[in-house]
Structure formats: structure tokens, C-alpha cells
Amino acid sequence: MLPRHLVNCLSHNVNRLDDFRFETDFICRCGSTLFRWYTVGRYGESDPFRRPLSILIEGKPCFRIENECIKCNHRCLVFDSQIHGWNGFICRNEHLARISRPTLDLWKCTVCFAAGQSARIGIASEGESDFNEFLQSFGDRFNPDDWVDAFGWIHISLRCPDCKTDIPGWVDYETM
Questions:
Q1: From what superkingdom does this record's organism come (predicted)?
Q2: DSSP per-residue string spanning 78-105
Q3: Cα atoms in the Cβ-side hemisphere of radius 13 Å centred on 37
Q4: Residue 80 lies in domain
Q5: What is the domain count for the chain?
Q6: What does the CA dihedral 144, 145, 150, 152 come to, rounded to 10 degrees?
Q7: I want to staple 41 with a disulfide (CB 3.0 to 4.6 A). Which of 19, 37, 105, 142 is the partner?
Q8: Which residues have a Cβ under 8 Å from the Cβ of 46 and sit 6 or more positions away?
Q9: What is the pLDDT of residues 99-120, one digit of tens each?
Q10: What is the value of pTM for the model shown?
Q11: Which residue positions in the chain have pLDDT lower than 70?
């Protein structure tokens, strides 16, 4: 159920909401739950929480989120719209998937300016059975186990441990 690129970045204590959605916490392989968060550096101007927005690369939207463990500095690519989710995995443009990305910007709490937050992720997909129906048309390119990487939506909420600020929907991105 976890997207393969996130298996080593998330708690395996998954709250499966139904056949199409789950939620879980980010947890580093060292056990820490606090991370620095990096984005492409574009934010909503009137958004007090500075939720990240996509940028254009060669005329196509690019949305990228990475995190880095506060304790051991392990870095994880959480989401890149050109390689993850439905459009990045199923409809991948190999040229856009390979081109370099801009330098990422460190996100800080907008209340206390701390650079380490805990996070909860939600992933939604069309489900395994819908993906198997899809395979009947495109079975030569994908296999049944790929359904976990063909998700349609990613949601990340942050919590600042220093000032206790919750930022629901810090990322709320449809991948289709």
C-alpha cells in the first residue's frame, strides 16, 4: 500500500481509511520523527502558512518536496510530480523526469521559524482493482504491483514541535 519510494521514510503503522486511502507518519530509519522540509521555493503570497506551490519547468508544472532527518541528516525525496503519482509514474515524460530541478528552499515554521517539523501523510489512489482493470489496456508497460505508485493524490500536514502550530494540508496535490 505504501508507494515504493517512501517505504523507508514512513511508519509502517498505517491507518488504512478504506481501499483507496491511507494515512501514516513520517519516521526516519533512525527512529526520529522530526524533519527539515524542502520545496521548490514558490509559496502562496497570501497564505500565512507558506504552503508550497508548483513551478514551471519547460512549460510543465513541477512540484517537489524533500525532507531531511534532524537527527541523522538522511534525506528523502518525498514527492516529485514528474516521477511520482499517476502523471509522473503512469504518464511519465522521460525527458522531464531526467532534467535537473531547481535548488530547493528550506521551509521554516511561519510562527516561530523553527526548521524541524513532524508530519503526517495521506495518499489516495483509485485502488488495486481499478489499476488491474487499467492493466488490461496497458499491461505490457506495468504490472499489478505498480498500483501503489500510481496514486492520484498526496496530502501532508505538518506540526511544529516548538510552538505546537498545526499546518493541515501543507501539501494537498492531485497527481492526475
A1: Bacteria
A2: EEETTTSHIIIIIS--HHHHHS--PPPE
A3: 31
A4: 4-174
A5: 1
A6: 90
A7: 105
A8: none
A9: 988 899 999 999 999 999 999 9
A10: 0.91
A11: 17, 138-139
